[in-house]
Amino acid sequence: MRTTMTTRSIPGGLRGAVLASLLGLPGALAAQSAPLPSDLAATATSAPLAPALAATAVVVPRPAARPELAPPPVNVGLPPARPRARDPYLPAAQWNDESRGPLWTRVMMSALEGHGAEVPATIPADIATWCPGYEQASLRDRRAFWTGLMSGIAYYESRFQPEVVGAGLYHGLLQIYPSTADAVDCRADSGSELQSGTANLSCAVRIMSVVVPDHDVVAAGGRGIANQWGPMSHGWVRDEIAEWTRSQDYCQIAPLDTVPRPQDRPYALLTTPGPAGAPVRG
Predict the structure, then answer these.
(1) How far apart are CA 127 and CA 234, in angstroms?
(2) How far apart, in whole angstroms, are the C-alpha atoms of residue 238 and residue 149?
(3) What angle do CA 245, 110, 106 make, to 5 degrees?
(4) CB neighbours of 214 closer than 8 A, spacing ≥ 6?
(5) φ, ψ for residue 133 (rounded to 5)?
(6) 3-class secondary structure, 136
(7) Whole-prediction pTM value?
(8) Residue 181, Cβ neighbours under 10 Å: how many?
(9) pLDDT tens digits, one per residue of 180-237
(10) How far apart are CA 196 and CA 36, in angstroms?
């Protein structure tokens, strides 16, 4: 039978020495204890540390770092992209003298380039009445025409007051009905949201992108823009707005002298004799 000796069976004077040897305490502490008998010393020095003691001796938790002392992250990737420069072009619009007018103009120009791109791509059948140079104009000038046109309508709809509510039903610069806004998936589809000038104009472009391509007119026969905005149903309003849009730079027909002339023939071709026997023109 194997006999297991514990520290309880060791005399009091020897117990400290056994523990010091098992735990690997400094020699100075071990020296203060009485020397061990040869059989106990061999057992103490050859016995491995208990698993619990070994784990306690090796795994020492490190203190958590203080967030305020942590170094800031270093961006080692590509530099952030710079925002696209804003187009400095500000076409004529009837609200441009208002404090927020230039912003409204840029919002409409941007919307007509984005979700309303189908509007300037359309050439309405009655466009000559409104903008004679539209057909040959650039897309930017076409967007300018539609922006100027809607600014004229906004004057008759709201006098450029974004918070106006008409008959308790129609809201904002262009007096949009919330149900109409919802039908064309406008982000602003409630009365309070449509009283934001920029949201109202963005929604108006969504409405335009439905009626202008579908009807293929600006306002003839009560269709197109006239189908959605009441002032355009009055002949005198249409005449006043059309007179204004026709006078703007973006609606002018380019003069003929701006058309590039064909390149002159090289002088050598003019002085080179033709083949023998070719008739000579007088």
Answers:
(1) 18
(2) 10
(3) 65
(4) none
(5) -90, 10
(6) coil
(7) 0.63
(8) 25
(9) 999 999 999 999 999 999 999 999 999 999 999 999 999 999 999 999 999 999 999 9
(10) 93
Bridge partners for 165 per DSSP: 171
Confidence bin at 264 (pLDDT 50/70/90): confident
- Name the residue among 200, 184, 214, 185 with its Cα closest to residue 119: 214
Task: For residues 112 and 95, give the distance between their C-alpha atoms in angstroms, rounded to a whole number.
Answer: 17
Structure-token pair, residue 100: 């927020």
Q: According to the 3-state scheme, what is the secondary structure of 178-234?
A: HHHHHHCCCCCCCHHHHCCHHHHHHHHHHHHHHHHHHHCCCCHHHCHHHHCCHHHHC
Which amino acid, 78?
A: L
Other Cβ atoms within 10 Å of 148 Cβ, number: 25
Number of other CB atoms surrounding residue 9 within 10 Å? 9
Taking the C-alpha atoms of residue 170 and residue 195, their distance in angstroms, rounded to an integer, is 10
